[in-house]
Every structure is written in structure tokens, then in C-alpha cells.
What we know:
The structure holds 2 protein chains of 2 kinds.
Chain A: H1 18-21, E1 38-46, H2 53-59, H3 65-74, H4 94-105, E2 107-115, E3 122-126, E4 129-130
Antiparallel strand pairs in A: 1-2, 2-3, 3-4
Chain B: H1 4-7, H2 10-13, H3 16-24, H4 26-43, E1 52-56, H5 62-69, E2 73-78, H6 81-85, E3 95-99, E4 113-119, H7 135-149, E5 150-160, H8 165-177, E6 180-187, E7 196-203, H9 208-214, H10 260-263
Amino acid sequence: KTIVRLWCRRSSARGMRLLTHNLLINPMKGFEQAFPLKLIPTKITKEEIKFNAAFVVHLLPKIDYKVLLYAASTVGIKNLPAELPRPIDATQHVDLLKALHHTLLEIHVEEGKLVCPKSEREFPIKQGIPNMRLNEDEV
Amino acid sequence: MSRPEHTAAANEFYNRRESKKYTESGRVVSIQRTMAARAIELLNLPKGKPLLLLDIGCGSAISSAQLGRSGHVWVGFDISRSMLELARGSRLKSGDVAEADIGQGMPLRAGVFDGAISISAVQWLCVKQTPDQDPARRLKLFFKTLRKCLAFDARAVLQVYPENTDQMDMLATAARNAGFEGGIVVDYPRSMKAKKFYLCLWKFDRMPSRTQAMTSTSDSLLPPTVQFSSGRKKKKGRRKSKIRGRGGELVGRHESKPSSSMKTGGTKGRPNKKRRRKRTL
């Protein structure tokens, strides 16, 4: 096929978001408690997505906030509070929710690695895709 | 034509060339999108609320993009890096992809997803990909970890292409043993070509009253609970019924039982009058 693409569409960022980092564990048997995986980013991009306060509020109970603070610090975000206010209100805490939205959804780790805190096993992140596959001998 | 699962392992079959062919085929994309939309419908999610969903075997994120279009945020997993690398651009605006072998267990924390879909992926677990793989063990681990990462009232809708009824049974049994209940939805059941199977699962909770107390809004997300009545019902005459759902038991269609029209070869005993099959989809 000799179809030549005459336009070049710039792909948007592809990378592991900090939300995803907050959900991942080592799939190896016996390592379910090995959370969080250490985050060592080497290349980061940022891309805006539409802010939805209700969605951020929905996500917060699922998130391990201490882990989010840790992950945020590895990508240079230090403006988050040490603790979340309770209850969190969509109108009252709008600025906080926007900061959380930015941290959870707008940071993309394109290159780097995740490391199991127990076994030190590395899960590389290449082209924004973390590789969680175990080798045959690890299963 | 041999099935992909018997040709090679999923990540080997979906190499660069196959992945590109798949992702760029208008027909394939269209079917995948339709099935994804159907799976989302079967998830029976509360309306108007963006949720966190899981896409199992997301490939180049064709199905995941459908989740995004419905307003949700998602995380997708696939074993084929070639497919994942084709997940680009606007598809990734609403979610992330990761490389994983679902037969090794979902690498996810407990209770985080509001729902899960899978399009044309889970049947790969039924077939040995390497000589030392144990499909039964992989299925068990997959369903166990899937159940774990779902929220208590979340559903999983898995569209599968079972090779035969044994495979469908294998999947349903593994799901049930992992603590799921639910059923199999069959779309276009009379068309061999168009027939689609959706394994619809939710967590089996032995104490339905507890689940009821925890649920605040939608009744439709509740698993079918046992209804008690004090009255006496007259026992109707014995009828050969389809499999009725009971607590903890997976409801299924009689896939192994041929319908009456199939028994006669579609001619109702009149061999000269062959019934013309209407092509659906």
C-alpha cells in the first residue's frame, strides 16, 4: 500500500496517570499487599482534560491518599494538603478538587518504572505503557 | 479457518502486522464498537454519572474509546504490546492502558472499579498458550482477581467468542466458583454468524440483606435476592422450563439443546422446503 499521509496529526499524550498508579499492585502470588509500587518517572507530560468536580469526589474514596501524595511528589507536585477535609464538598473545596483533578488525571508518565517495594522487581513503563506481565518462572 | 487461539498466543497472534490490520479494518472497528456499546448497556450503570471502569483485553482501545464516549474514565489491560501501541490519540483521553496477562491475575487493588467490560478477549484463557500453562488455573485466578478489584455492586460484562458449549461452560463455571453470579445474554441467537455471547456477572453475596442495606440508590444493581411470601402457591403442572435463576446459581440458555427448528434441519419434516435464513447483522 502506498498511501502517503499528507497530514501529521500530533497524538495526544500517552502515559500512565497517577490515578492508575494508585490502583496497580504486583500480580505475583503473595504480593497483593505490596502497595504502592515505587514510582520512578524519567519522562512526564501534561495534558489538560475537562474538570468534573463530581467525578473527582467519586474517585476520592477509591484513592489511597497517602500514596497519591507520594506519587505526586515524584512528579514534582507539592501543593496538596497532608490530609483531605471530611466531608469533601464539590462547591466548597473547588480549588482542592481542581488540584486533585490535575494530579490524578492530567499528569502522564511516559517513561520510567514501577518497583515492587517487597521484591524490588521492576515493571518498566515504556511509551506510556506499564508492563505488568510476569515471566513464566515468576507465575 | 482455524481460530486465533489455536494459532498462537494472544501477544504473538496480535503482532505488529495483525494488530495494524485489526485496528484499521473499518468492519472490525464497527463491530467492536457495537459490542462495547452493548456491554456498557448490560452493565446497567447509573445514568449521568462518570465512573471508573475496567476494560479487559482492551487492545488498541477501540472498546475503551466507547467507554470514554459514554463519559467514563477507564483503565485497560492487554497482553499484546503491538495492539497497545496502537492505542493513541483521542482514545487515550479518557483512560490509560497497561500491558498484562490477565491469566496471571489482575494487578489491581481491591474494590476500586465501578464496572468492567471485555470484548472478544476472555475466551483466550480457555486455551493453552504455552505447553506448561494450565487454563483452569488461569481462569480461576482471573475471575478471582477480577471479583476482587470490583466495587461491591459493580458488574462485569464479558463478551466472548466461545469455540463450543464446553468453553462457555468452562467460563461460566469458573466465574461461579470465583464468587460471581449472573447469566449469559445471547444476542442474535438464531444466526450462527451474528450470534454474540455476553457473560454478565456480579458479586455473589451470601447475605443479600447486607447488600441491600449498603445500596443507596438503584435497585437494578442488586443481585436477584430471594423473595419470601407467606401465602401458598398452587403448584402448576410440570413444564419443561428454561433454567430458572436461583441464589448462587448461574442462569444459562440451553446452548447444548437444539431448538425444535434445528432438530428438523429447518424444514419441519418437509425436505423440499428449505427455510431461507434471514441474515441479521
